[in-house]
C-alpha cells in the first residue's frame, strides 16, 4: 500500500520541502520504495515575490514541473479548500473545477501568506499592490497607461502606503520605472505614508541613515506618525487629516498567513501563524508539519523566530521536507535552526543596504549592496536546475546558512 506525503503550496517553502523529502527517499530507497510525494499548487510555477515590484513582474514566474519530475515528485494543479487533519485528508479544487478528496499519511503545510487588507474605505477599489503576480502586472499596465492621460499634479503623484521593507522597495524603484515610461520629461512626486513614527520601523535604527539618504537623493517624501484612513478614485486622506491627490496609490500594509493554517489549528498568532515544535511539527496535531509564512518557528538558541521572508521559508522547507519523510520512515527528525540572518534592502538607483544579524549591522551599501541584492534576487533564491543530483543536493537541510 502506498504511503503518501502531501505538500500544500508551491512557493519557496513548498518547493524546497519537496526537494528535502525527495532527498530522504533517495537516500533511503529500500525503506521508501512505497512512499509517494505530491505537491499541490494553483500553478506549476513559483513566483519570485521579492521581485514583483520591478519593471517586468510577468517575468518573475519560474516553471517547476521539470524540477519535480527530476526528483520524482507528483504534482496536482489545484487549490486546497479544506484541510481535515483528524481524517488525514484535504479537499482540492482542481484546475478543471472538480472537487476531489486526497488522503495523506503526512502533510506539510506551506501555503504561504497574503497581503493584509483591513476594511478601510476605498482600499479594495482604489489601491494597487505588488503582493501577487497578477496585481503587479495590473500596476505595470496602469503605470504605462498614465502616459496617455492629461498631465496633472495628481497624475504625477504616487502614494506608497507603508514604509516597511516592501514599501521602500516599491517607492525607490518608481523613479526609474517612470523614467522608462515618460523619459526625463516628468518630475514625479512620490510620497511614502507610514503610520509608525519612523520609516522602516521593523528594520530598526541600523540601516535607517542609509534609507533616509536614499529617499532624499531620490526626492521621495515621507509622512510618518499616521497611516492612510481612506482611499478614493482621486487620492487618499491620512490620519493627520492631510489630503493627497494621486492617480496611483500602492498598498503595502503587511502580511498575514494563509487561512488554511487556522483549519489545522484554530489557535494561531496575530499574523495567523501556527506554533510548531523544533522539528517543524505543528503543535497538537498528529502527522502535520509546516514551513514558511504559515508558521512561527524558532530559528536559533537566542529566542529569534522566523519572519515572513523567502530567506526563512527556503531553509525551513528543507528541514520540513527532511522531517516529514524521516518521520514517515521512522527515522530521527532534525531540529530546525537557522542562526545566520541577513537583510538586503533594494533602494533603487541609490543602491542597496545589506545587513547581518538581528541587530541589522550594516555591511554593504550603495553599489556593493546592490551587487549583493542582485546575487540574492537573481541566483540564490531561484530553484536549482532540473537535474536530479543537483536538485536533491539543494534539498539538504545541512547546507551552509551563510
TrEMBL record:
<protein>
    <submittedName>
        <fullName>NADH dehydrogenase</fullName>
    </submittedName>
</protein>
<dbReference type="Pfam" id="PF07992">
    <property type="entry name" value="Pyr_redox_2"/>
</dbReference>
<comment type="similarity">
    <text>Belongs to the NADH dehydrogenase family.</text>
</comment>
<dbReference type="GO" id="GO:0003955">
    <property type="term" value="F:NAD(P)H dehydrogenase (quinone) activity"/>
</dbReference>
<dbReference type="InterPro" id="IPR051169">
    <property type="entry name" value="NADH-Q_oxidoreductase"/>
</dbReference>
<dbReference type="GO" id="GO:0019646">
    <property type="term" value="P:aerobic electron transport chain"/>
</dbReference>
<keyword id="KW-0285">Flavoprotein</keyword>
<keyword id="KW-0560">Oxidoreductase</keyword>
<keyword id="KW-0274">FAD</keyword>
<dbReference type="InterPro" id="IPR036188">
    <property type="entry name" value="FAD/NAD-bd_sf"/>
</dbReference>
<dbReference type="InterPro" id="IPR023753">
    <property type="entry name" value="FAD/NAD-binding_dom"/>
</dbReference>
<feature type="domain" description="FAD/NAD(P)-binding">
    <location>
        <begin position="4"/>
        <end position="317"/>
    </location>
</feature>
Amino acid at each position: 500500500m502506498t504511503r503518501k506525503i502531501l505538500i500544500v503550496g508551491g512557493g519557496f517553502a513548498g518547493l524546497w520541502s519537496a526537494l528535502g523529502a525527495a532527498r530522504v527517499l533517495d537516500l533511503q530507497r529500500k525503506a521508501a520504495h512505497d512512499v509517494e510525494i505530491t505537491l499541490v499548487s494553483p500553478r506549476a510555477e513559483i513566483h519570485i515575490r521579492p521581485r514583483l515590484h520591478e519593471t517586468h513582474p510577468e517575468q518573475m514566474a519560474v516553471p517547476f514541473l521539470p524540477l519535480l519530475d527530476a526528483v520524482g515528485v507528483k504534482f496536482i494543479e489545484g487549490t486546497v479548500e479544506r484541510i481535515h487533519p483528524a481524517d488525514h485528508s484535504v479537499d482540492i479544487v482542481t484546475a478543471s473545477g472538480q472537487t476531489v478528496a486526497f488522503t495523506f499519511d503526512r502533510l506539510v503545510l506551506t501555503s504561504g501568506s497574503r497581503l493584509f487588507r483591513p476594511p478601510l474605505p476605498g482600499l479594495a477599489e482604489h489601491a494597487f499592490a505588488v503582493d501577487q503576480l497578477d496585481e503587479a502586472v495590473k500596476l505595470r499596465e496602469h503605470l504605462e497607461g498614465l502616459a496617455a492621460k492629461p498631465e496633472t499634479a495628481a497624475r504625477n503623484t504616487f502614494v506608497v502606503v507603508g514604509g516597511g521593507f516592501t514599501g521602500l522597495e516599491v517607492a525607490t524603484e518608481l523613479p526609474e520605472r517612470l523614467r522608462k515610461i515618460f523619459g526625463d520629461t516628468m518630475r514625479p512626486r512620490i510620497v511614502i505614508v507610514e503610520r509608525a513614527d519612523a520609516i522602516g520601523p521593523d528594520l530598526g535604527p541600523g540601516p535607517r541613515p542609509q534609507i533616509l539618504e536614499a529617499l532624499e537623493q531620490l526626492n521621495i517624501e515621507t509622512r510618518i506618525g499616521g497611516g492612510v484612513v481612506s482611499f478614493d478614485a482621486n487620492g487618499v486622506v491620512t490620519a493627520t487629516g492631510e489630503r493627497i491627490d494621486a492617480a496611483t496609490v500602492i498598498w503595502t500594509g503587511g502580511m498575514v498567513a494563509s487561512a488554511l493554517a487556522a483549519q489545522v489549528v484554530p489557535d494561531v498568532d496575530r499574523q495567523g501563524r501556527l506554533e510548531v515544535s523544533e522539528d517543524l511539527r505543528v503543535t497538537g496535531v498528529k502527522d502535520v508539519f509546516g514551513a514558511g509564512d504559515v508558521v512561527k518557528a524558532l530559528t536559533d538558541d537566542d529566542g529569534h523566530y522566523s519572519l515572513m521572508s523567502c530567506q526563512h521559508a527556503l531553509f525551513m522547507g528543507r528541514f520540513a521536507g527532511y522531517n516529514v519523510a524521516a518521520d514517515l520512515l521512522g527515522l530521527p527528525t532534525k531540529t530546525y535552526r537557522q542562526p545566520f540572518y541577513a537583510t538586503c534592502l533594494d533602494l533603487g538607483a541609490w543602491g542597496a543596504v545589506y545587513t547581518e544579524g538581528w541587530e541589522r549591522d550594516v555591511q554593504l551599501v550603495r553599489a556593493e549592496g546592490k551587487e549583493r541584492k542582485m546575487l540574492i534576487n537573481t541566483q540564490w533564491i531561484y530553484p536549482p536546475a532540473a537535474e536530479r543530483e543537483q536538485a536533491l543536493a539543494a534539498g539538504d537541510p545541512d547546507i551552509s546558512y551563510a
